[in-house]
Specification:
There is one protein chain. This protein is of the alpha+beta class. The chain has one domain. It contains 7 helices and 4 strands, in the order αββαααββααα. A hairpin with a 5-residue loop joins strand 1 and strand 2. The chain starts with a helix and ends in an 18-residue tail after the last helix.
Length: 189
């Protein structure tokens, strides 16, 4: 078992080094993209991802559309979710966990209901219950329901279950390039 683990770790390390080199060369010699996200107790932090697009502008100084700026390695990184690997640095820094609600940008905070704010009682995660139960195919209300359910019911075994499902989603992904509408608040019914 230890032999398998050492080989697995060596392959991951080699892949990480190779991706670092390719991403660095392909993206204007900048390796990471950082974005402010909200973590535990609504504390902001910088979340790391591999940079997947070049900084290309039109003649008026506006960024070109994403489709024109994404590189071939960026497409691969997003399709395989390898663009999320630098979030391991966020885990080492103590900003995130492997499992938890996905950290969202700060502009969403004013739109949360008191119930939805519970998602910030724990650290955000690289993967979470909402990601393995539908991810970008879910509407915001359902994602927040799953996040809160996770917060209120989390256990070591639930985390292992989510990690297991995450590996399955990794091999059979179908939502890597789904367009997501920004969260604008709760709809009144």
């Amino acid at each position: 078992m230890l032999y398998f683990f050492v080989i697995f770790l060596a392959i991951i390390l080699l892949l990480f080094v190779l991706l670092n080199i390719l991403a660095y060369i392909s993206h204007d010699y900048a390796l990471f993209f950082t974005q402010e996200r909200i973590g535990k107790n609504e504390k902001p932090f910088l979340m790391y991802k591999y940079k997947t697009m070049q900084n290309l502008y039109d003649t008026e100084g506006n960024l070109l559309p994403d489709a024109q700026r994404i590189t071939w390695i960026g497409f691969f990184l997003r399709k395989t979710s390898f663009d999320e690997l630098p979030q391991l640095l966020n885990i080492l820094k103590g900003d995130m966990n492997f499992v938890g609600p996905r950290p969202l940008p700060p502009q969403y905070l004013p739109h949360y209901s008191p119930e939805q704010r519970k998602r910030h009682l724990v650290k955000g995660g690289i993967t979470g219950l909402a990601q393995v139960k539908g991810g970008n195919h879910l509407n915001w209300q359902k994602r927040f329901e799953l996040d809160v359910w996770y917060v209120e019911n989390r256990t070591f075994w639930l985390d292992l279950y989510i990690i297991w499902l995450t590996f399955g989603k990794f091999f059979w992904r179908n939502d890597a390039n789904v367009e997501v509408e920004p969260f604008k608040g709760n709809e009144k019914v």
